């Protein structure tokens, strides 16, 4: 398998995981301050209290955690035990302990996600942690992977994980054009109950993707998201747009820095215009996460972030379903840069040929 690419353009650096040694001094100070405040809030049983010291008996009774003990090292359980004041609580997010003094290797990685999402404003990051814990309890996010009724095989081709990018991050594909099938559209989004189920299913997809992350410094800490906009911007898809907006809001509020890039394929001029109109309200970091790609630039753009053997064939790559001839198990794709108007000789090493044929794939 050979992939030829133009050599007159410089490819952007693949999004790199957060490395603590690369933090700027003010970022290190913010991380330390957040750890101190978080430790204090946990020890004083104040992490989940409403902001500003307001009293809200309903919230307090729902989201106070069982005390942590080495003999009962389980996930954070929320229950109404407001009268107890143990020395330590076992708060976790995605199975990572939040209490800094426990010394877990992934705690700083999680805290840096919240700090990055709030531009290293410590109080805002702490509030976001609090809100995320509360939302996860109320939504049931910790149990959603085992929730009955969310195995929806008809949606397996709508949102799915498929391979990794060049830096080892999982790639999530969103093929919302599948909803042009009226039967699928109505069975998924036809009424409020179905739309709520779709929201829970989409959050479950996110949780599945997160299970592929290591949360170790320097390793894959986020997901590359590819969204194909083909056939999904019809005026008749009002329910889809409303439901998707709700999903995006949930993911933005409760999954900070879990998506390294959003690559929108088959983007229309309207998509470009909408993004340009509102992009000045977002930070430079946020702007860099959105990439809009016209149909004639899809393969070229994806190759900057994903190796050709991991790009689905419909997007100009080599990855096919159940492909025995050109699978990753048979080796990586060889990439050769050829300047426009030039001729390049390609040599193929053949260790063994079985039968009268030799197969190759050149794109």
From TrEMBL:
A GO term from the CC aspect: membrane
Main subcellular location: membrane
SMART domains referenced in this protein's UniProt entry, alphabetically: CRAL_TRIO_N (SM01100), SEC14 (SM00516)
PROSITE patterns noted in UniProt: CRAL_TRIO
Subcellular location: Membrane
Region (Disordered): 1-20, 49-78
Keyword annotations of the record: Membrane, Transport
GO molecular function term, any single one: lipid binding
Occurrences of domain CRAL-TRIO (ranges): 148-323
Record's protein name: Sec14p-like phosphatidylinositol transfer family protein
Membrane-crossing residue ranges in chain numbering: none
Family annotation (CDD domains): SEC14
Cited PANTHER family: PATELLIN-1, PATELLIN-4
Domain of life: Eukaryota
Pfam families assigned: CRAL_TRIO, CRAL_TRIO_N
InterPro entries listed in its UniProt record: CRAL-TRIO_dom, CRAL-TRIO_dom_sf, CRAL/TRIO_N_dom, CRAL/TRIO_N_dom_sf, PATL
